[in-house]
Write a structure and sequence with these properties.
Strand order of the largest sheet: 6-7-8-3-9-10
Radius of gyration: 18 Å
Distance between the termini: 46 Å
Order of helices and strands: EEEHEEHEHHHHEHEHEEHH
Number of helices: 10
Strand content: 25-35%
CATH class of one domain: Alpha Beta
CATH topology of one domain: Rossmann fold
Number of strands: 10
Low-confidence stretches: none
Helix content: 25-40%
C-alpha cells in the first residue's frame, strides 16, 4: 500500500500515530519523518513513549490510530518478521539476546533473511565481517555463550545482531543504558560509523547530550506526545531542553 506523503528522500514517516495499552494511551497523535541517511534521536523521561514507538515501528505492538510508512509503503501493524524483511532491524532495550547460545549463533539468528541463495550467503559473510570490524571483541568471543559476556559486550552483540539483517533503517533503543563511560563512548562512535555507511538510524537514548551531539535531528517526547522537535543543534541550544534533559 502506497502512502503519497513525505519528501522523496523520506525513509520513515510517522503520521498521527496513537498507541494504547488497553485503556491507557501510551502514544498520542505523534507525527514526524526521518530522512534517508539521517540519525534522528528520540529523547524524553521514562514513560514518555519512546520504546513504545520503536515497538510500533518494528511490528511488536499494534498502532491504534494513524499510519507508519517506510520508503512510501504503509507498514502499520505489519507482522514483525515481515518488518525485518523490509530491512528494518531493531536492537531492543534490555538487549534481548539469547544467553544460552553462542555469540555466533546470536548473530546467525539476526541474519535469517540474508541466507539461502549464493548471493545471500555472500552478503551474510560480508555482514558478519563488518560486525566483527565494528566489534572485534565479538570475533574473539564468537564461540562463547552470550551469557558469559560483560554488559558492554552484550550490548555490542545486540547491535551486531540487528546489523546482520543488513538494515536500511536501524532502530536502537537505549544502547548506552547501564554501561561504563568508555563503553558508552564506543557505542556512540559505532553508531556514527553505521550511519556513515548509509544506514538510517532512529535512536532512543536517555543520554540526551551525547545523542543530540551525534544526531541530525531530535524529537522530545513527553507523556506520549511530541513536545519539541528540530535540528539537534537547535535543541542543544534550547534553554528548555538544557534544563530538563541536559542537567543545566
Amino acid at each position: 500500500m502506497q502512502l503519497h506523503n513525505g519528501t522523496p528522500n523520506t525513509a520513515l514517516l510517522i503520521k498521527n500515530v496513537s498507541v494504547h495499552y488497553g485503556a491507557i494511551t501510551a502514544i498520542r497523535d505523534v507525527s514526524f519523518e526521518v530522512k534517508q541517511g539521517e540519525i534522528v534521536t528520540l529523547i524524553g523521561c521514562n514513560g514518555a513513549g519512546k520504546t513504545t514507538l520503536l515497538k510500533a515501528i518494528s511490528g511488536l505492538i499494534k498502532v491504534s490510530e494513524g499510519t507508519i510508512s517506510f520508503k512510501g509503503d504503509i507498514i502499520s501493524n505489519t507482522p514483525a518478521h515481515e518488518i525485518v524483511k523490509r530491512k528494518i532491524c531493531h536492537a531492543p532495550e534490555g538487549r534481548g539476546i539469547f544467553l544460552n547460545l553462542t555469540v555466533e549463533d546470536n548473530l546467525d539468528l539476526g541474519a535469517w533473511t540474508c541466507k539461502g541463495t549464493p548471493i545471500q550467503k555472500t552478503s551474510y559473510q560480508q555482514d558478519l565481517e563488518q560486525v566483527f570490524s565494528f566489534f572485534p571483541r565479538l570475533k574473539e568471543r564468537r564461540k562463547q555463550n552470550a551469557g558469559t559476556l560483560s554488559g558492554g559486550e552484550q550490548q555490542m552483540l545486540a547491535i551486531g545482531r540487528a546489523l546482520m539483517g543488513n538494515p536500511e533503517l536501524l532502530l536502537l533503543d537505549e544502547p548506552s543504558l547501564g554501561l561504563a563511560p568508555q563503553i558508552i563512548e564506543k557505542i556512540f562512535e559505532i553508531t556514527v560509523k553505521i550511519n556513515q555507511l548509509g544506514r538510517t538510524v532512529l535512536l532512543v537514548e536517555q543520554n540526551a547530550l551525547q545523542a543530540l551531539q551525534i544526531a541530525h535531528h531530535g524529537i522530545v517526547l513527553e507523556t506520549g506526545k511530541i513536545a519539541l522537535k528540530g535540528k539537534s543543534s537547535e535543541l542543544l541550544a534550547s534553554d528548555e531542553v538544557r534544563k530538563a534533559y541536559l542537567g543545566e
